[in-house]
Fold this sequence. Notes:
The protein is an alpha+beta fold. Among the domains are: 351-463 and 472-550, DNA Topoisomerase I, domain 2, CATH 2.170.11.10; 723-874, Topoisomerase I, Chain A, domain 4. 43% of the residues lie in helices and 7% in strands. A hairpin with a 3-residue loop joins β16 (633-636) and β17 (640-646). The radius of gyration is 30 Å and the shape is globular. The protein starts with a helix and ends in a 13-residue tail after the last helix. Residues 480-856 form the DNA topoisomerase I eukaryotic-type domain.
Amino acid sequence: MTVEAREDKNMMEDMDDDDDAPLVFKRSGSSSKPKQSEPENKLSSQKHNAQVGRQSSDVRPQNGTNANAQKGKSVTSSSSMKPPVRPSLVSPKSSNSSVKASPIKSPDVNSKPSTSVVGESKSVKSTIKEENSEDSEDDKPLSARQVAGSSKNNPNQTNKPNAPNLGKKSNVPKPEDSDDEIPLSAKFQGKSNAGASTSRSSHSEEKKPLVARKPDKNGSASTERKPSTVLQKRPADGVASAGQSNLKKPKLSDSLASKDKKASVKPEVKAEDDEDLVPLSQRTKKSTTPEKKPSPALKTNNKTNSKTNSKTNKKSKQVSKDNNYSKSSKLPPSSGDGQKWTTLVHNGVIFPPPYKPHGVKMLYKGKPVNLTPEQEEVATMYAVMLETDYLKKPQFKENFMTDWKKILGKNHVIQSLEHCDFTPIYEWHQREKEKKKQMSTDEKKALKEEKLKLEEKYMWAVLDGVREKVGNFRVEPPGLFRGRGEHPKMGKLKRRIRPSDITINIGRDAPIPECPIEGERWKEIRHDNTVTWLAYWSDPINGKEFKYVFLAASSTLKGQSDKEKYEKARLLKDYIQGIRTAYTRDFVSKDPAKKQIAVATYLIDKLALRAGNEKDDDEADTVGCCTLKVENVEPVPPNILKFDFLGKDSIRYQNEVEVETAVFKAIQQFRSGKKGGDDLFDKLDTSKLNAHLKELMPGLTAKVFRTYNASITLDDKLSRETKGGDLAEKVVTYNHANKEVAIICNHQRTVSKTHSAQMLRLDEKIDELKGVLEELKTDLGRARKGKPLLAGADGKAKRNINPEALERKIAQTTAKIEKMERDKETKEDLKTVALGTSKINYLDPRITVAWCKRHEVPIEKMFNKSLLEKFSWAMDVDPSFRF
DNA sequence: ACACGGACTTGGGACTACCACG
DNA sequence: CGTGGTAGTCCCAAGTCCGTGT
Length: 883
C-alpha cells in the first residue's frame, strides 16, 4: 500500500508542477468543443438535473427590508438580543402582482413528443417561430405574461407583452416596462413534439453492485463493484496529459485520441452553438433533443459496459462507445450507463490540524476550572461564539451542554451552563485574532505560502487525463453545529472526522492516497466510476447524511452537468405553452389529485417556488410548494393570494399575488375544513408532482421551472431593455435584469449592519457636493458679470476663473451628484437582494456572454474570475444566442 | 406507494483579500 | 498608511431528485 501511494504521489506532484499556471481555463481555446461532445451525452442520461425555470417578474416577493430581518440567522452582533429573529418584519412592499395565467393558444399540452423527429420538429418549429416570432409568451415568464394582460396594473413587472391573451395579473409596484414590445405569443403550440417521452432513461441499473470488500493496502477494505479483473494501468496517455492539463482525453479509445475527437466533435458542437441563430424554438429542439435521447442501442451498450466495469471494461467500453455512437450520436459518453469517468487520480483529503490546547481557564462559579484538552476544545468552540446570536437561543445552549457533558463526564464540577464563564477563553481568542491581524504583510504571506505548500497536492485531481481542481479537499473541522433558522440540532458538537470515517473513490489503477495521519487508515476504498465524488464521510450531526468531496465548479464534469441543466431548461421552452394550457384546464378538474397538481404546478411556474420535499422533525421547519400549510397561503378576495412562509434556509417568502379565479377558488377549496398547520396539498408530494411533470416533458422536474424562468427572464429583459448608452449604462441594465431574477427567486441577504450609516454618509456627501454646486453657480453668475468671486468657505479669495471653466466644473459636479444618487439608489435597492445566487445557479451564462458580445461589454464586467472559470464552457457561444 | 439511502445542486453568511480614500 | 467597504472565497447547511428495497 504505502508503496503504491508513493508512486502516485510522485506523479501528482509532477503534474502539479506543470500546472502552475494558475487559473486559466483548462480547456483549450476552443475549449468548449471538446467538452461539448460530452455534454450532450450526458444529457441523455440520467440523472440529473434539470433545473429550474422561472418566470415572471411580477411575482416577486416582496421583500423589502423585511425579509432580511426575518432571517433569524445572522447577525453576529449580539447586541441585539432578540432571539432569533425571524420574520417579524415583513411588510412587503406591496406588490401584488397579478398573475394570470394566460391561456394561451395552443391547445394541448401534452404533447408528448413523439420521439424521434427531431429534425422535423425543428423545422416545424422554426417556421412557427419565425412567424410569430416574438411573441410567444410562453417564453416569457408567466408573470410577465399576465401582467401584460392585466395591463395596467402591474406596474412592475416588466415583462411581457400584452398579448392578447394574457391573463391578467396584477400589479405590483413595478412599473411596467415596455413589455409591450413583445410579441405575442406565437409560438407555442408546436412545441410538443419532441420528446421522447420520457423515460428513457437510463437507469443504470447496474450501479449497484456492490461491494465486496477486500483489504487493501491501506488496510482499508476496498470495494469493487464488479468483478473486476486486473488492473491495467491507466492509460498512458492519461498520465501524460495530465500534466498538462488540457485536453481532456476523451474517454474514447486511445486511438481516437483527442485530436481526432476534437475535430470531429467540433462540427457538431458548432452546430449546437449555432443553434443560436436559429429561432428559439428550433434551437432548442435541436440541441436538446439529440442529446437527450440516447438511442436505445446506446444505452444498452453502456449498460453492459458499466456493469462489467472494471478496468478491462473500461477500456473496452470506451472504445466501443466511441465507435458506436459517440460522435455521431452525440451522446455523452457517460450517458447510457451512468459512467462518469474512466480514470481518476487524486490525493485524497487533508485533515485539519490536531487541537492545540491553550491552557486558558474558564470560570465556573467564579473559579478557574481545569479541563482536559478535549474538554477545553469544546469549551473553546462555545466561547468563541459568545458574541453571536446563537448563544441567545436556548435550544443551542441546551444541545451544546448535552454534548459537552458527555465529554466532561458525569461527575465533573461543571454541571450547569448557567455558572460557566467563558470570558477568559473568549478574550484569549480575541487577542489571538488581533495578533494575527497585526502580523506584517510579509509574515502573512509566508504563512499563506506555507499553507499552500501543504495543501497543494490535494487541490488537484486528474480525471480522464485532465487535471481538474478539487472543490473541497479540506475535511470539515470539528465545531458546534450552526443550523439555520430554528434548527432542532443547533449547538450539537460536530465531532472531528478521522480517516477511518472516510471512504475514498478513485480509479482502479490509481495509487491509493496515503493516509495523512500516521497510524490510521481510510475506512474504505472504492472504484466507482458512476459517481463523481472523490471521497465522503457521514455527517456527524445527522448520521444518515453524507458529506462529499467533489471536483470544483470549474471542472469539465461540473461544467457539462451545468450545460445540461440549461439545455433542459431551454427544452422546457418548447413545452411550456402546452404545460400551461394543461394545468389551466385542470384547475377545475374533478379529480382532487389532478387539481392539486395543476395548482401546484402553476405556483411553481408562476412564483418560482421550490418543490418542497417532506422534512424530518429533526430539521428546521421550512416548506416548499408541496409542503405549504394552510396557514401559509391566505386568499384575499377577489383573487389575491398572500403567501407567507419560511422556505429554504429559513428565508421568509412573502408575496401577494393576483391569480386566476380558478386557482383562487381551488386554494379556497383546498383550505376548507383544515387547520392552519395542515397541508394545503394533501394529495400531493414531490415525487407525485415530478412523476406527472415527467409525463409532460422528458426529464422535467419542478426545479427546471426555476431555471427556465430565471434564464428566460434575463434573456427577455436584456433584449428588451438594452438601449444604446455607454458601458456603465449597459451594466446597469444588466444588473437590473439580474435583480428582477433575484427577486423572482427570492434570493435575499441580510442588510449589512452598517447599511444605514453608509446611506447617511452618502447623503452627506451629496449634500456637500450640492453646496459646492451652488457656490459654483454663484461664481459663474459673478464671473459673467465681471465681478470678483466671493471668498470660499475657507475665507480665502478665489482666483477668478473664466466662465467656461466654471461651466465645466458645474457640469462635472452635476454629473458626480447624479452618479452618487444613482449609486445610492442602487444600494438601497439591493440592500436585501442577493444577485450572486442567480448568477451562479440560474442564469444560463450563454445569455450573458452573447449579450456581452452583442453589446461590446467586456465579459469581465459581468463575471468575476471564478465565474469565468466556471462558465468557460459558455464562452464561445455565438453572439446571437438566445435562451 | 413508500421510506430511505445516496448523490448532487443550491444558498446565505462568515471570512478575506483588496481597493479607494482621507 | 490606516481604514472601512466591498467583492470575492470559503464553508457547510439545506434543498432536489433519483433509485431501491420492501
